[in-house]
Design goal:
CATH superfamily of the largest domain: Tetracycline Repressor, domain 2
Helix content: 55-70%
Number of strands: 0
Distance between the termini: 57 Å
Oligomer: single chain
Order of helices and strands: HHHHHHHHH
Number of helices: 9
């Protein structure tokens, strides 16, 4: 018998918490109806009233992961321009145990997204939103003279996201080689590489 509407609403938070516990323990590879039901102490049959298919469970887990990522504590934005871009990139990296756990879950979701057109489209949308949050600060940096006048904020935002997620993966797989200080230093090197500083030949650094 399906739960009554009031019961469904009351248990929604319990369901989400159980999904999160399953993700934190084993990532998306271990996310099953059985694992979530076990975390809740209920039957898989009851849980199927909320998630009739494995895909529905995965879609909910991705939404929950995005929500918890958006709600995580963040660094203060110290100033307009590259200082804010720096803070935003540092917020993405696995610099704390919580950030490391969250990034592990995100990376574990990529195989599933690549195998499902709908999930892949959702993930592409997340990247679009991430780039769009960084781009205005790059535009501000260009206006402040921190970037070359001809810099393309859209392209630089794409480069920043590609850089930081590449660093995330390396830090997750090889934390000994990429401890916190190395990650922070690499972010600073990246920002220096796109800044308005000129190289030895006097040409502005406009490439990523």
């Amino acid at each position: 018998m399906p739960p009554a509407p009031g019961d469904r609403d009351a248990r929604r938070e319990d369901v989400s918490e159980a999904v999160w516990l399953a993700l934190a323990e084993k990532g998306f590879g271990g996310l099953t109806l059985r694992a979530v039901a076990s975390a809740m102490g209920v039957s898989t049959g009851m849980l199927m009233h909320y998630f009739p298919t494995k895909r529905a469970l995965i879609a909910h887990a991705l939404d929950l992961l995005e929500k918890r990522t958006a709600e995580r504590p963040r660094r203060e934005r110290p100033a307009e321009g590259l200082a804010t871009v720096r803070a935003m990139l540092l917020d993405i990296l696995p610099l704390t145990p919580d950030d490391t756990a969250r990034n592990r879950i995100w990376v574990s979701s990529w195989d599933l997204a690549l195998a499902d057109d709908g999930l892949a489209s959702d993930q592409a949308g997340r990247y679009t939103r991430l780039r769009s949050t960084i781009r205005p600060h790059l535009e501000a940096a260009r206006g402040l003279g921190e970037l070359p006048a001809g810099a393309d904020p859209e392209r630089l935002a794409a480069g920043a996201v590609a850089f930081v997620h590449g660093l995330v993966v390396q830090a997750l797989f090889d934390p000994g080689r990429f401890p916190e200080d190395v990650q922070v230093s690499m972010v600073d090197d990246f920002l220096a590489s796109i800044s308005a500083a000129r190289g030895p030949a006097g040409a502005p650094r406009t490439t990523l």
